[in-house]
Amino acid sequence: MSNLVAGLAPWSSSWLAGFTVCMSLLVSIGAQNLFVLRQAVRGQHVRVCVAWCVASDALLVGLGVAGMAQLLGRSPTLAQWLQWGGALFLLAYGLFAWHRALFAPGGGMDAAGGARVVRGVLGVVSGLAVITLLNPHVYLDTVVLIGSIGARQQGWLKGVFVLGAASASLVWFVSLALAGRRLQSVFANPRAWRVLDGLTGAMMLVLAWWVAQGT
């Protein structure tokens, strides 16, 4: 039995490292999280959104572990572009959220594809793909930060690390979807959408400043 435990120790350690590092970054408010939350509140294509987020996180972390993190680390100029690009993306996202809160009819429900507008699965996934893949800040988090930590694992343990990160992503986005479902009655009131968009805009602008500072 002691030999079995000893054999599992590296496996469990690598899995836990991937899980905790990924979870610590996911729980911060980001554009992807808010998109999934809004879809969960609307009750539209939530499972597809969760599946996309988990798959994209696993892919990006895997790319970082496979060597892209080291490649980006050797290019300070590219890292700087990712930093500023991420800040601009978050700034634009925050300003659009404030625009919905202040000017969109029906508390932003119609303009944002809310409860009275049913979006097709392709439109939802396309919007989520844009937020995920065209946000430079995502690459800083998944490829550079998480990937560089996972790259320190030895041999097959790198794959275990990626699996741990994917597990954290699954737990987080399923929890977010369940939370959004419970909030559906609250967001039946258009004012709730205005409040959410107002808070979203504020958080995105703060995050944009934080990314621009490089902290």
UniProtKB/TrEMBL annotation:
Its main location: membrane. GO terms for cellular component: plasma membrane. It holds the Pfam family LysE. It is found in: Cell membrane. The chain crosses the membrane at residues 15-37, 49-69, 81-99, 120-140, 160-180, 192-212. Keywords: Cell membrane, Membrane, Transmembrane, Transmembrane helix. The keyword Manganese does not apply. The keyword Nucleotide-binding does not apply. GO terms for molecular function: amino acid transmembrane transporter activity. It is a multi-pass membrane protein. This is L-lysine exporter family protein LysE/ArgO. It comes from Paenacidovorax caeni.
